[in-house]
Amino acid sequence: MFVNLSKLNLREECPLSDKGAPKLCLKALPGEGAERSCAFDGARVVLMPITDAAHVVHGPIACAGNSWDNRGARSSGAQLYRRGLTTDLMEMDVVYGGEKKLIQAIVEVAAKHRPKAVFVYATCLSALIGDDLEFACRQAQAQVPVPVIPVNAPGFLGDKNIGNRVSGEVLFQQVIGTAEPEGSHPFAINFIGEYNIAGDLWGVLPSLEAIGVKLQSCISGDARFDDLRTAHRAKLNILVCSKSLTNLVKQMEKKYGIPYIEGSFYGIHDTSKTLRAIAEAFGDADLIARTEDHIRQKEAETRALIAPYRQGLEGKRAVLFTGGVKTWSMVTTLKELGIEVLAGGTQNSTPEDFLRMKALMDPEAHIIEDTSAAGFLTLIKEKAPDLIVAGGKTKYLAHKTRTPFLDINHGRNLPYAGYNGMITFAKAVARTVFSPVWEKMQKPFPAGGDVP
Amino acid sequence: MSENTCAYRQSKEEVAEWLNSPEYREMNFNRKALSINPSKACQPLGALLCALGIEGCLPFVHGSQGCAAYFRNTLNRHLREPVPTVSDSMTEDSAVFGGQANLIEGLKNAYQVYKPQMIAVFTSCMAEVIGDDLNAFIANARNAGSVPRDFPIAFAQTPSFVGSHITGWDNMFKALLQSLADPRHGRWTNGRLYVVPGFDAYPGNLREYKRLVSAMGIPMTMLPDATEAMDSPHTGEYRIYPGGTPMAELADALNASGFIFMQRYSTVGSYKFVKNVQKINTEVVTMPIGINNTDKFLMALQEMTGKPIPAELEKERGRAVDSAIDAHPYIHGKRFALFGDPDLLLGLTGFLLEMGGIPAHIVCTNGTEQFRKDIQAVLDASPFGKDCGVHVGRDLWHMRSLLMTEPVDMLIGDSHGKFNAKDANIPLVRIGFPIMDRVNLHRSPIVGYQGAINLVTMIANTFIDQVDCTCPDRLFELMR
């Protein structure tokens, strides 16, 4: 069930290559569960937060009917991205093909909803019936004044990460570099793989402002299409969720010479580290000094504010079960609250994520290999953690086993990024772990009528 | 193109205003190819909910894996419960070579890992398009030793591009009877009434049906019975299979003394199968929402079984009537817009009319022409229903245009309606599926007399709340 971290040589088993899906994202076994979503979903994760674009799903009701506005990526402006747009393919479309319907749908949406661009998503169904997405988009393009962009990541391509990669490819090929920004900023950066879940991005912006760094574009949280087009003029890329947009930063480095660093804004340690790395990447003495000042001030402030929570949480033990950047960044974040991570696992991380996680965790800690519900239950039973930090699909399993649970994925309503996010996180963890519902109510009904 | 180009030139404010105009409404209703903010889910989601109602049953999606993850997510969010499901994760290879290998391996893994008593297999659109033959594949899986030869498996074809979640519920239900119910033993019956809820994601409703039928003294089986799977008590242990209709009672279903279907549109095929093919004494009622519809349900039970309606239920009815009288000033004359599944809308419309509410717009994305006729008949029976527009096959973006051009006082529907309600600045009372942004609503029944009291309470108090939150000081009152 578990692989002891110290025995797992990830470098040997999972060569870190540029091409293809990360090897560690093993293919889901038939019949083992339904934990992983698909390439289509992965594509939506990356592109949907482009707020002023229309996102048209070319498929049956399943794909958009279940997924419109389901990720909690917030917008400070346009709300267009939240609309559920689909061709809702029905039997006749399957028989006669859906291309015409798609072209008409693109024209309808472009005409009436004033998008900055139209992203068109293939699905298993439209791909299998042989609809030519590129062709339909070209046809529609001739009739509408905004870019029409096909996203060919039908679900059967595989796991979510593949969809992420396809989206990175789409952005690189068709969006980035198609417009020039007005003026330039000496310290302009892009965030790659920050989706502004629950407003995470907004927790980081005050720090950027304080040190004098400009966010040229965020790919793709709270993104405006026109900002993405100018992303190639940034001086530095910050890969926030390394999950599968690594391909994008690498290509941007090759083509535009934009160096990239990886970073995370979860927790005090990683926030400071990333800010410092940004400043150092620019190598500007003033910027570095400003950043150090800011870090000193914010760290002291934040540590003071979370101290009361840490006091209670010290020594608690958690299981971490998430994806991408959070696999390793959350280890440090939980440590800052005095919480030890007993076991960690992920379904969607890259080998790099795993290596980092491995380096941070106790060598005796476990990597969860069996990602099925059955495997997860065994883990809870064996480890009896004080807290599970994971995503929505695990939430109710945890609740049923009376284990305090904190949603870290897109199901949450609270932003955890940046220094302020750390305070929010500390409060949320404390509220979760110390809720009286775990204690009092789990005692059996007093049979003798003898209420303690 | 001229009008399109014109739309491009408008400023953001102008566009917002234009979206609310009668001209836009007309264009919106001429929309042909695009569905915006749809209010339906697909067949396999319905099949999954149906399969959850059999004890020890593991729902199994034959198709690509993302679908199963989406269904689970949607049901998780509405029920706030774990939802066991597996998928056989078909990928590109399966698209080329067919999904048999996945099904064979998937059944084997699922059987070993989750130890179900039975498996309900249903398809997503991928398997349907490539034309996988479930019957043959399952036989081959048994031969290959994936599961024991006599292990019960029900299977249904549930293409996502036909119908909606209610069609999928119906198909899975019929498949359960066809695959796993023993043939009928002549005229002998087991003396039990089989109560079929249809696609209903309210465990509170299912409990209410059981309570009402039991109060009538009728021996019954609810089939399928997802009450526990949707709302299991907390014991500290997670049980993958928390309950449901026992396999033996499913096997004995065709010997029932009768079947009563609580919904029409989510049981169309199953109803025909039970009544016309199996020749079982069968009734279908309008979902018993409101007092009249509940009366009709109880009278149907009385007629089918000869059992009288007990005094206890008459008292309950009296309390429901009393609550309706107490609340009538808050609801009478108010205009409502409603959307959701056809059976729900049919019941709710009857309820609103008996309270003196005015249904103004009814949007049913997955409705049929028959539904249009049926709901029109309900509307025609009351003076309060004379001006209502019924919009079949329309989506929530059509609803938005309706709300903007012909305003109402309240929107009733699931959580997806919250965007419309916000834009139209009216309250949304959450009824239907899915409800992802409120807790526990699915636990309270909206059917039966108790359900009528619950609905009256929700609707009237929402109006009262609205007055309290928005009225000027001079009209602020302790009493309402």
Automatic annotation (TrEMBL), chain A:
Top-level lineage group: Bacteria
Pathway noted in the entry: Cofactor biosynthesis; Fe-Mo cofactor biosynthesis
Gene Ontology process terms (BP): protein-containing complex assembly
TM ranges: none
GO molecular function, one term: nitrogenase activity
Family: Belongs to the NifD/NifK/NifE/NifN family.
Function: This protein may play a role in the biosynthesis of the prosthetic group of nitrogenase (FeMo cofactor).
PANTHER family: NITROGENASE IRON-MOLYBDENUM COFACTOR BIOSYNTHESIS PROTEIN NIFE
UniProt protein name: Nitrogenase iron-molybdenum cofactor biosynthesis protein NifE
The species this protein was found in: Heliobacterium modesticaldum (strain ATCC 51547 / Ice1)
Gene of this entry: nifE
TrEMBL record, chain B:
GO MF annotation terms: ATP binding; iron-sulfur cluster binding; metal ion binding; nitrogenase activity
One GO cellular component, as annotated: molybdenum-iron nitrogenase complex
TM region positions: none
Catalytic activity: N2 + 8 reduced [2Fe-2S]-[ferredoxin] + 16 ATP + 16 H2O = H2 + 8 oxidized [2Fe-2S]-[ferredoxin] + 2 NH4(+) + 16 ADP + 16 phosphate + 6 H(+)
Known cofactor(s): [8Fe-7S] cluster
EC number(s) given by UniProt: 1.18.6.1
Function comment: This molybdenum-iron protein is part of the nitrogenase complex that catalyzes the key enzymatic reactions in nitrogen fixation.
Subunit and partners: Tetramer of two alpha and two beta chains. Forms complex with the iron protein (nitrogenase component 2).
UniProt protein name: Nitrogenase molybdenum-iron protein beta chain
Native organism: Heliobacterium modesticaldum (strain ATCC 51547 / Ice1)
